[in-house]
Write a structure and sequence with these properties.
alpha/beta; Rossmann fold; 2 domains; five-stranded mixed beta sheet; 12 strands
């Protein structure tokens, strides 16, 4: 049955074994402000096929039918994302059972003695359904967007690390080689020169070259931490020792397994996290002690960097240009992990990196690093 034209057109599926009750529903809809077509079905199999076909906009269902109930019908479609809104129309169900049905996910309930409210109930149910669909669509689009951003962030991290490695090689091969050759030439001049003034200048130049060589090595190590070839624990220990020498802050490293060998992307993420955390400590913490703990127990890499400094305020976290922690969180996501920050004003800060060692993100990045 079709009742004409209107801005809203609904294809209604009516689950009802009584032809008389079906005619009663149709008469109740004759003055409806929307256009509709209505199809009556009596069996569970026919209902399930039509309800999930994508051609139905609304379901009206009697509660008790021969051999099954509306709850059985609902269970056939409740897990289908294409299910239409579902309204119970019955005189054989109590209020408690109706409320229980709505808790299961059924859209609404109307007693057959109150069919004058049918149009209002239908319009409200359809409006709620469309709003929910819009929210679900927006949530799916947001999730897809976040996934694309996460994948792009991972790609950028790989690209940045590759570029850093290329720059480090150029510094080693070109600048480092040239500085070493110049130092050898100065040493030759110092051995063969007899002018004290010239030799003094030569020694000063050699000292400057040695400083430049040290700086180039430090830059290369920051660009491409080749120390990671010795293992994550060894790399973090070297980083901590360098930090302690530079800042005077006592820094200790403890690990559950000195020989742990997580995948290369995880190692690099952990190293960069420790590097950034120590940089933040030196700038802001005003502490006297830093502890780094590393564990690979139960197929999880966990690294905690804690200090006894000033802590971080909510205001500092909310700064628009506070990219350090945000960047660490994004880096952790690229390997399927996460970053937590625990802090209290005057009681220090702990940065905790957690990464499951077996996950798709790590496997994907590891393939890109090869």
């Amino acid at each position: 049955m079709d009742n004409g034209n209107s801005p809203i057109k609904l294809a209604i599926l009516h689950l009802e074994d009584s032809a008389a009750d079906h005619r009663l529903i149709c008469r109740s809809l004759e003055r409806a402000s929307f256009s509709y077509s209505i199809t009556r079905v009596e069996t569970l199999a026919t209902f399930a096929a039509l309800a999930t076909s994508g051609s139905i906009d609304l379901i009206l269902a009697d509660y008790r039918l021969p051999g099954f109930t509306a709850i059985d019908a609902w269970s056939k479609i409740s897990h289908n994302i294409r299910r239409p809104p579902f309204i119970l129309l019955s005189g054989a169900i109590g209020e408690a059972a109706a409320v229980a049905a709505i808790h299961l996910g059924i859209s609404d309930y109307l007693h057959k003695d109150d069919l004058s409210q049918l149009e209002r109930v239908i319009l409200r149910t359809v409006e709620v359904h469309l709003t929910r669909q819009a929210h679900e669509k927006a949530a799916l689009e947001l999730a897809a967007s976040e996934k694309r951003l996460s994948e792009f962030s991972g790609y950028l991290q790989v690209a940045i690390e590759r570029e850093r490695a290329a720059i480090a090689r150029e510094i080693h091969d070109d600048i480092g080689g040239s500085l070493a050759a110049a130092k050898l030439d100065l040493a030759w001049l110092a051995r063969h020169g007899s002018d004290p003034t010239a030799n003094e200048h030569i020694r000063a130049a050699a000292d400057m070259l040695q400083h430049a060589l040290g700086a180039s090595q430090r830059i290369m190590m920051n660009l491409r931490p080749s120390i990671l070839d010795q293992g994550l624990v060894a790399a973090v220990q070297w980083l901590a020792s360098s930090f302690e020498r530079r800042t005077g802050i006592v820094t200790t490293v403890r690990s559950s397994n000195e020989g742990m060998d997580p995948p290369k992307p995880v190692q690099l993420t952990a190293y960069r996290t420790a590097q950034e955390a120590l940089t933040n400590v030196s700038k802001y913490a005003k502490c006297t002690n830093v502890k780094i703990e590393i564990s690979d127990a139960e197929d999880f890499l966990t690294m905690e960097i804690s200090d006894n400094g000033l802590g971080i305020s909510e205001k500092d976290f909310a700064k628009p240009d506070s990219y350090g922690i945000r960047g660490l969180r994004e880096r952790a996501k690229t390997v399927g992990g996460w970053l937590d920050v625990s802090t209290r004003m005057g009681a220090g800060t702990s940065v905790i990196l957690s990464v499951p060692l077996i996950n798709a993100s790590v496997q994907s990045l590891e393939a890109q690093f090869k």
